[in-house]
């Protein structure tokens, strides 16, 4: 294995912890400020108005950077394993990395352009982030199966593929329902008429 890998093993855990904190902190601020209802708001709703928008944008951009670092480490790990086993083409590994990096760029767009300030750019960023994320996860699951049994157990591969399947299934209704709505504001009062465009 790579001699430097034990020193970077904390990066994926940091990515998950930091990203979770970003969503939880911006949610808490948004609820305390009265900007969103506490019951299951959209993630982007919790980062639309100041002060939570600044916290959300900053923390999600750091998450995107941590995502880039994590994906690059994974790319290097597969390249090193592939030197002795030749289980996957190097071009496939590079393609997977590029798709993952596109997803991180999408995350950066979502963080930078708030949902109501620039909705079309925000929505494109979300589509790129989630779409690329689903493709990246699926490609990594396939690469994991190809590296069995030398570099992965089948149990880990099955878990990765299950996560990929759930992600793919969740992506479809996200696209369908997102295309049906046009968000122009977060707060609605009963009886308020919806503007049609």
TrEMBL record:
Localization of this protein: Endomembrane system
Record domain CWH43-like N-terminal: where: 8-183
Alphabetized UniProt keyword annotations: Membrane, Transmembrane, Transmembrane helix
Mode of membrane association: Multi-pass membrane protein
TM region(s), chain numbering: 54-73, 94-112, 124-143, 155-178
GO biological process, one term: regulation of autophagy
Principal location class: membrane
GO CC terms, sorted: endomembrane system; lysosome
Keyword Membrane part of the UniProt annotation: yes
Similarity comment: family membership: Belongs to the DRAM/TMEM150 family.
PANTHER family: DNA DAMAGE-REGULATED AUTOPHAGY MODULATOR PROTEIN 1, FASTING-INDUCIBLE INTEGRAL MEMBRANE PROTEIN TM6P1-RELATED
Descriptive protein name: DRAM1 protein
